[in-house]
């Protein structure tokens, strides 16, 4: 297996040192909409999660990796495979870059490219899907760049600031 590395980023397993970073992301109300979070997480719960992060994707049905730049250890984002379904060879995929200063710099593009390659070549998945709020134009453009197709819209699917919004489902089928 080739390393989970792009030209300027690499993906790594979560470490105990990531506790504060994950705590910051999970408790950032500005990104709850994209992370499908409704309530704050305690450091205690995140510590427990990190203690179980050694479970492989077949056991946990999820794989969460830290996105790091160059050879630096600190994470700047997270990328996930979730709802892993080995019977039907599919998984959901999601990505978040924590601070706005790191967005729009191709970090998400590189991380998504690496994770798609890993999902299709190493896990032998047949398809990936992403759930994206229709207001989130940057994410829709990012996934479309990789050939994800908008295959439908779930009406009034997510509640944001007291108002229901539609959510699109994007799908990428591995043609190989």
Automatic annotation (TrEMBL):
Residues 9-166 form the N-acetyltransferase domain. It comes from the Bacteria. GO terms for molecular function: acyltransferase activity, transferring groups other than amino-acyl groups. SUPFAM superfamilies: Acyl-CoA N-acyltransferases (Nat). InterPro entries: Acyl_CoA_acyltransferase, GNAT_dom. This is GNAT family N-acetyltransferase. It comes from Flavobacterium agrisoli.
């Amino acid at each position: 297996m080739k390393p989970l590395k792009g030209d300027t980023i690499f993906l790594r397993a979560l470490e105990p040192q990531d506790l504060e970073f994950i705590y910051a992301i999970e408790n950032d109300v500005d990104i709850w909409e994209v992370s499908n979070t409704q309530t704050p997480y305690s450091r205690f719960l995140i510590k427990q999660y990190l203690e179980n992060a050694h479970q492989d994707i077949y056991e946990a049905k999820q794989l969460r990796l830290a996105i790091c730049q160059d050879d630096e250890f600190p994470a700047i984002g997270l990328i996930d495979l979730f709802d892993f379904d080995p019977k039907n060879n599919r998984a959901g995929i999601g990505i978040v870059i924590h601070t706005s200063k790191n967005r729009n710099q191709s970090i998400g593009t590189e991380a998504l490219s690496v994770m798609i390659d890993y999902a299709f070549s190493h896990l032998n998945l047949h398809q990936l899907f992403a759930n994206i709020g229709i207001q989130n134009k940057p994410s829709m453009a990012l996934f479309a760049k990789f050939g994800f197709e908008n295959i439908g819209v779930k009406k009034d699917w997510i509640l944001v600031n007291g108002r229901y919004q539609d959510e699109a489902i994007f799908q990428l089928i591995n043609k190989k």
